[in-house]
Write a structure and sequence with these properties.
46% helix, 3-stranded mixed beta sheet, 3-stranded antiparallel beta sheet, flat, 693 residues, mainly alpha
């Protein structure tokens, strides 16, 4: 943008010809907008933009501002983008080095435009330097009246910047902060760490939605991918031909005994041939060839030749045969789709892509932006488990890779999305030529998938999904909440949520993610109890086969309890109260014994709620009123007498030990960092020595 407004008399510390983007890593071959652009700074194509963000968020607009306000907006933006700019430092302003994201600067420029509009509406002085503290306070009160108080925090940030940056502003800013002793959040009564407002997906929606997504990936997906491959082959082999050549192609196609005419059901429950698709199938491009026209005798003859195949049963409703069969609502069996032809294939491709996105979002706890940045071929093995290798792009020029552990079905969902994606790199992008590039918005993908499933469930046999607003962030919140009941899992959850803290749950935001949702309370109580018993039964059976079920004092007590159950079962058999060889007797006794066990990813906990002797998590702890059970945020798997290290946990602990030893070999480690690693290694080694003394 090169349009210019008349310059104000004040002189800015920034040159008109210097680039706006100086502190962000820029894309190769990009050109930054200049400070002198007075209409718009378009950052698209200059710095990396996550696929889930809209292009509008990467444009900083200055339209509608007077020359003085326009310069002020550009100066503020320049400082936010380049807090360590030499001119800023030269004027005695020393700010943290991290530049703000383009979306934040764009949003704050919008706040300044709103402030300017308020001044005009209230007939305030044209220059901000002449406004009183009460004028700003009235404006913030006005913003709070318009909506949530938290949304006004950004407007307070902008007003405070007028004082904070005054040394570097041409207009001189403001000498006094209207709220000198309050933080931006405190001005609008917002806590430092606000309560998490993201609700969990209710179980009535969660289960049918996740099941539908997996059904699409696992059952319908292979058919859709097979049909896509065939349709691409048909399109690649077809070519523009003249009528004479098309006649030869049709004759050869009709002579092939494997050829079947594509048909579709009419509104009157009859059948009609898809003439456009048939033209493609014989090897001709239909756009410029009115081959099966009814306007002349030759066209009608061609139609008659094709229609004769219908009388001998040589027809198909879908591009491919043998579609997966499902059980419909009426109990009958049939193919999951009535007519998978090109138009329907386009719709189902979108549905499958959306199902893949939903499934990954629901079961990986990755952020929306992180899912959308997954690249093709990024599913790898990391310490013996499937993981997504991603790229961290938060203003880091070195772009270090990170790994997200995932389950095998999530890996299948990512692979399916990658196979459909038309983007050169991204796994989740456009899947049809009608849309190009990144191709979709995450929120729309969720909504459209729910509507699609509900619209066609009479054929697919899928359960109805209740209409609840579901956002990408709600998946992350729900899965974090579901994992909180497993001891040790809080560490893994903290890693997945990427909140850096001494312990995973020391961060209040993480605790907010894991808070129970009332809508899940009843379901979790019964479902978790039943799942725990199933896993306990597996341990009982493994112990009966002589297999190792775990290490440590907790495992010893568990084996003693299993032995007591078997003795009681044998006594019942001896007295004739139970049949010999019936394992259900032992399982019934095991259920009635009600052993206390909580299963986790890093260890199992056998603490008895009524007799918590030896529980390290309760030592010197302030136990909340009414709380029963372990304090999972204080779990010490290596030191607690109630901890069970199972064979499935060992690879994780061994990998952690190797990682810590490798870190200790680093020459340049701060003494406190080295001491912390040594302390961690000591605990990890205690666990490993239980197995290999």
């Amino acid at each position: 943008m090169t349009s210019r407004l008349p310059l104000p008399s004040a002189q800015s510390i920034f040159r008109d010809d210097e680039p706006v983007i100086q502190s962000h890593p820029t894309l190769e071959g990009s050109t930054s907008p200049l400070f002198g652009n007075t209409i718009c700074w378009d950052i698209n194509g200059v710095v990396h933009k996550p696929p889930n963000l809209q292009a509008a968020g990467y444009r900083v607009l200055f339209r509608g501002l007077s020359p003085e306000w326009n310069l002020l907006a550009r100066e503020l933006g320049m400082i936010w983008f380049n807090p360590r700019h030499p001119a800023v430092l030269a004027h005695g302003l020393h700010l943290p080095p991290g530049p703000l994201a383009p979306t934040t600067v764009s949003q704050r420029a919008g706040h300044l435009r709103a402030l300017a509009a308020y001044g005009v509406a209230e007939q305030l002085p044209p220059s901000l330097t002449d406004w009183s503290d009460d004028d700003f306070k009235s404006y913030i009160a006005h913003r709070c009246e318009l909506g949530d108080d938290s949304s006004a925090t950004g407007h307070v940030h902008v007003i405070k910047a007028l004082t904070r940056f005054r040394q570097a502003l041409a207009c001189g800013g403001r000498a006094r902060d209207p709220w000198p002793d309050l933080s931006s959040g405190s001005v609008v009564n917002q806590p430092v760490v606000a309560d998490l407002k993201t609700p969990a997906v209710v179980p009535e929606t969660w289960f049918p939605l996740v099941r539908a997504a997996w059904t699409y990936i696992n059952q319908f997906g292979p058919d859709i991918l097979r049909a896509i491959e065939l349709w691409h082959q048909v399109q690649d082999q077809a070519r523009p031909v003249k009528t004479e050549e098309a006649d030869r192609l049709l004759k050869a196609w009709l002579a092939d005994p494997d050829s079947k005419v594509p048909v579709r059901r009419t509104a009157t429950d009859g059948w009609e041939i898809n003439w456009s698709l048939l033209t493609w199938m014989i090897g001709a491009v239909p756009e410029k060839l009115n081959f099966f026209t009814t306007a002349n005798k030759a066209g009608r003859a061609r139609r008659a030749a094709a229609e004769r195949l219908l009388t001998v049963g040589r027809s198909r409703e879908s591009l491919i045969d043998d579609l997966a069969e499902v059980t419909g609502p009426d109990g009958g069996r049939g193919p999951w789709h009535q007519r998978l032809q090109p138009r329907e294939l386009w719709v189902e491709s979108l549905a499958l892509r959306n199902a893949c996105y939903i499934f990954v979002a629901a079961l990986s706890m990755m952020r929306d932006c992180e899912i959308r940045e997954i690249t093709k071929g990024s599913v790898v093995e990391h310490y013996g488990s499937p993981a997504v290798k991603s790229t961290k792009r938060k203003l880091d020029p070195d772009l270090p890779t990170k790994h997200w552990w995932i389950i095998a079905p999530v890996a299948e969902a990512i692979d399916t999305a990658s196979r459909m994606s038309l983007h050169a790199e991204l796994a989740f992008a456009a899947v049809t030529p009608r849309f190009h590039g990144e191709g979709f918005t995450s929120q729309t993908a969720i909504t459209r998938f729910i509507n699609h499933v509900n619209r066609h469930r009479n054929v697919t046999g899928l359960s109805k999904i209740p209409l609840q607003k579901v956002t990408p962030h709600m998946f992350r919140r729900t899965m974090a909440m579901l994992t909180r009941d497993f001891p040790g899992s809080e560490i893994a959850v903290g890693m997945q949520l990427k909140h850096v803290a001494t312990r995973a749950l020391a961060n209040r935001s993480t605790q907010g993610y894991m808070d129970h949702a009332p809508s899940w309370a009843r379901h979790l109580d019964s479902a978790i109890t039943e799942r725990r018993f199933e896993r306990l039964k597996d341990l009982f059976d493994a112990d009966g086969r002589g297999e190792i079920i775990g290490y440590g004092p907790g495992a010893d007590r568990m084996r003693e309890a299993f032995a007591a159950v078997r003795e009681k079962a044998e006594a019942l058999r001896v007295t004739g109260q139970a049949r010999r060889g019936d394992i259900r007797v032992e399982h019934d006794l095991l259920r009635r014994t009600r052993l206390s066990i909580r299963f986790g990813k890093l260890n199992h906990c056998t603490m008895n709620d009524d007799d918590p002797a030896g529980a390290k998590c309760l030592e010197d702890a302030v136990v909340p009123a009414g709380h029963k059970g372990p304090l999972i945020d204080r779990c010490q798997p290596a030191r607690c007498a109630n901890s069970v290290i199972g064979p499935e946990h060992l690879p994780i602990w061994q990998a952690e030990r190797s990682s810590l030893l490798k870190l200790l070999d680093t020459s340049k480690l701060a003494p406190n960092h080295r001491a912390h690693i040594v302390s961690q290694l000591r605990d990890v080694s205690l666990v490993v020595r239980r197995v290999h003394p």
